[in-house]
C-alpha cells in the first residue's frame, strides 16, 4: 500500500470514535492489528490493539502509545495506521486488561 498519498490525522482530531476498528499495518504492509479502543485523547492517547487471532477469536489486546503509530486517512477518507512493530513484537507485549 502506498501511504505517500495518505493524509496524516492531526493529534487534536484523535479520538475513539475516529479510530475504533481502524486497521494497523506493520513495516511490510502486513496487517498487524486493529484498534479496539483508546484511553485518553490527542497526543497523550494510548491505543489498545487487538493482535493475532482470527476474526477476533484468540486475539490479544496490547497497549501502545499513539506516538508509536502513524495514523492517517487514505484517498477515500478511510482511517488506518502504520507502525514499525511487527505482529510478533506486538504479541510479545504484555496483555492489556481494562
From TrEMBL:
This is PRC-barrel domain containing protein. Residues 88-98 have a biased composition (Basic and acidic residues). It comes from Pseudotabrizicola alkalilacus. Residues 20-71 form the PRC-barrel domain. Residues 76-98 are annotated as: Disordered. SUPFAM superfamilies: PRC-barrel domain. InterPro entries: PRC-brl_dom (IPR027275), PRC_barrel-like_sf (IPR011033).
Amino acid at each position: 500500500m502506498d501511504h505517500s498519498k495518505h493524509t496524516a490525522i492531526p493529534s487534536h482530531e484523535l479520538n475513539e470514535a475516529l479510530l475504533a476498528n481502524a486497521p494497523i499495518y506493520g513495516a511490510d504492509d502486513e496487517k498487524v492489528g486493529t484498534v479496539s479502543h483508546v484511553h485518553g485523547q490527542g497526543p497523550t492517547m494510548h491505543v489498545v490493539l487487538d493482535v493475532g487471532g482470527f476474526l477476533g477469536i484468540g486475539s490479544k489486546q496490547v497497549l501502545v502509545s499513539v506516538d508509536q503509530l502513524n495514523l492517517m486517512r487514505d484517498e477515500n477518507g478511510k482511517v488506518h495506521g502504520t507502525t514499525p512493530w511487527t505482529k510478533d513484537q506486538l504479541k510479545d507485549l504484555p496483555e492489556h486488561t481494562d
